[in-house]
Amino acid sequence: MIKEDFFKNKIGVIGAGNIGRSVILKLLEKGYPYDNIQLSYNGSIFTFSALFDDNLVDMISDNSRLVKDSSIILLSVPPQSFEKIGDFGLDKDTLVISFMAGISIDKIKKQTNSENVVRVIPTGPDTIKNSCAIAGTYPGNDVADFLFDLLDFDYYVIDNEDKMDYMVIAGCLPAVYCRVDPHSNESIRDIQRFAGDFDEFIEISKKAEKLVPTDNIDEFVKQVSTPGGVTEAIISSLDQGNSLYDSLMTGIKRNNELS
Ligand SMILES: NC(=O)c1ccc[n+]([C@@H]2O[C@H](COP(=O)([O-])OP(=O)(O)OC[C@H]3O[C@@H](n4cnc5c(N)ncnc54)[C@H](OP(=O)(O)O)[C@@H]3O)[C@@H](O)[C@H]2O)c1
């Protein structure tokens, strides 16, 4: 696919929070036409203010219009908010790319009516803005892959949706490594134990070490911790003094609760 053809797609971003906005800003930076992007949010005054600051106010739409107009839909609402959106009634071939942790492809297909659903779990919004996001995606899809390349994602196409759970945890590692030293013997042992049969996890963990910011660490952790989400669960377990392994398992548990 060539860029000019891809840029003709109307993209609708449902959930213009931290992830949604960072994706939109990166698309604009790459020359994506402003008029071909719509976004929605849930009415928060803080989100409106952020949209205003980022000059994205003219993209604001509502879910029903956005769903009707878009050929590619990006889902970046909190997992707990997805069901409340209701049925989308999409055409079967409308591409839906979900950034949500914990919500399975089957569930997204049922609610959207699309048969063309891809999941992606990137590291946090700052890494997207800084063109250094690591991501796991499932299944492979040419159009979605084109988008991930455009967004400068260093992405792994996962061969089994169950392994996306590990990617959810991998996406939390930059924040986790703000709290624990990844080079301690304990951490190395816990990461190897956690990796189990997903070898890439160790490589991704090494890459995640490089995404730990050097300043504004608390702000960074806050930004990547969706309220009620997986990162928040892991960080809170670490803060209670639990081991890295146990805290990552708490993250898996939270991810399953959200599914
Ligand atoms: N943050 C990360 O590092 C990270 C990494 C990987 C994956 N994810 C996934 O990405 C998703 C978004 O995370 P986030 O950190 O960007 O969360 P967030 O900052 O809380 O953003 C979520 C956005 O969804 C909007 N929203 C809620 N209900 C909606 C509805 N019915 N219609 C339209 N918009 C609605 C919210 O609107 P208001 O602003 O008005 O409340 C908010 O703008 C989550 O599913 C998370 O699992 C996050």
Describe this structure in words.
- It is a single chain.
- This protein has 14 helices and seven strands.
- α9 packs parallel to α11 (200-209), α9 packs antiparallel against α12 (217-224) and α10 runs parallel beside α14.
- The longest helix is centred in the last third of the chain and has 15 residues, at 244-258.
- It has 259 residues and is α/β, with parallel strands linked by helices.
- It folds into two domains: 3-157, NAD(P)-binding Rossmann-like Domain (Rossmann fold); 162-258, no CATH class.
- α6 (105-112) links the parallel β4 and β5.
- It has a seven-stranded mixed sheet with strand order 2-1-3-4-5-6-7, with helices on both faces.
- The structure holds NADP nicotinamide-adenine-dinucleotide phosphate (NAP).
- NADP nicotinamide-adenine-dinucleotide phosphate binds next to α2, α5 and β5.
